[in-house]
Amino acid sequence: MKMPAVLRRRALLVGIAALAVVACKDSSKAAPAGGGGAATGAKRLKIAVVPKGTTHEFWKSVHAGAVKASRELDVDIVWKGPLKEDDLKAQIDVVNTFVAQGVSGIVLAPLNDSALRAPVKAAAQAKIPVVVFDSDLQGDQHVSFVATDNQAAGKLAADGMAAKLAAGGAAATAGKRNVIVLRYQEGSASTQNREKGFLDGIKGKPGLELVSDNQYGGATTESAFQKAESLLVAHKAGAGAVDGIFTPNESTTFGMLQALKKSGANKKVKFYGFDSSDKLVAALKDGDIDGLVVQDPFNMGYLAVKTMTEHLRGKPVEKRIDTGARLVEKESLDDPAVKAIMSPDLKPWLGE
Q1: Per residue in 252-302, pLDDT tens?
Q2: Is the pLDDT confidence value at 183 over 50?
Q3: Domains, the chain, ranges and CATH?
Q4: Is residue 69 within 8 Å of 301, Cβ to Cβ?
Q5: Across-strand partners of 246?
Q6: Which of 308, 311, 224, 275 is nearest to 61 (CA)?
Q7: Model pTM?
Q8: Which residues pair with 327 in a beta bridge?
Q9: What are phi and psi of 334, to 5 degrees?
Q10: Which are the contacts of 160, defined by CB distance < 8 A and separation ≥ 6?
């Protein structure tokens, strides 16, 4: 029997409505929470890297290592820090700005081991993780610490100096060899630990006497030069009354080098410094510096960004990562491994 036209139209409308209901149910199952659909992907990671300063060669190598990690791991980094390493307020402002911007994570080399606690706590409260590198920070708000074992590194300098002094050279007074230390600045955990490692090492060496360890060179080569000049005069280094000198970072080492040259005491003392630059390496070759304890700043920057990236991607990370250090003397300058650390090629990463 043939269905009347009115009934055929009704049946057709019912079928269309049923198909529409099925389609709505299927689309609600396919759409993800938040309504983003296939067009919504994971947010790209943006990591802020905050050094202590931006002028020393050390930080340029750190920057290059951070760039290498960012390219390999496909994340974005923003490099920003104070111009000089004594501008604590500027560094705190930089960290607070990155927290306000809501970056994915912050990699920080704190200028002061206590003053940066509040900004790091604020970052943690904003759910922005922090990896501390180079210099330690009090508290437990950061997820990892990536740095040289600075006490062990300071002891390397003490061992090297003691060996050189034992190998030859006249003692200053009655068999005692006088040693002075020009410190960096108060509150810098990394250099404080290097100084402690050196001082502890010297105390265990017979025949060595520490005659000064309470002077600070400050954050610039200019301030370090002025303090070094006064220190050398006070202890009659030009007259041969000082046998050994230790400085714990690039700026104090270069400032002391300039003061030794000006006073004519260069090559008369066993001078051990920390970190490297073209000028410091040249002085090591010329015999104006006897040894440099070198870190691996390129590796430090690389591992700091890698550690933060792995943490952000849900992978477990170590609370303490040692990036290594070694003592370099003139005899080891031709070692390829030493060259790679002391004179890394930064052009592929920084374009300079």
Answers
A1: 999 999 999 999 999 999 999 999 889 999 999 999 999 999 999 999 999
A2: yes
A3: 46-148+297-324 (3.40.50.2300), 150-294 (3.40.50.2300)
A4: yes
A5: 181, 272
A6: 275
A7: 0.80
A8: 293
A9: -85, -5
A10: 272, 290, 291, 327, 329
Task: Give the number of other CB atoms < 10 A from CB of residue 162.
Answer: 21
Give the Cα separation of 309 and 319 in Å (integer): 14
The structure tokens listed for 123 are 């970052």
CB 308 within 8 A of CB 111: no
DSSP letters of 147-188?
Answer: E--HHHHHHHHHHHHHHHHHHS---SBTTBEEEEEEE--TT-
CA–CA gap between residue 110 and residue 259 (Å, rounded): 29
Burial 218-239 (b: 16+ CB within 10 A, else e): bbbbebbbbbbbebbeebebee
Digit-coded pLDDT (tens) for 123-136: 999 999 999 999 99
Tokens of 24: 């709505």
Cα angle 101, 107, 111; round to 5: 100
d(C-alpha 62, C-alpha 305), whole Å: 10
The dihedral formed by the CA atoms of 102, 105, 111 and 114, expressed in degrees to the nearest 10: 80
3-state SS of 206-264 is: CCEEEEEEEEECCCCHHHHHHHHHHHHHHCCHHHCCCCEEECCCHHHHHHHHHHHHHHC
For residue 217, give every residue at least 6 positions away whose Cβ sits within 8 Å of its Cβ, in sequence order, or none.
Answer: 182, 183, 184, 185, 223, 224, 227, 228, 247, 251, 252, 255, 256
Phi, psi of 322 (to 5 degrees): -90, 125
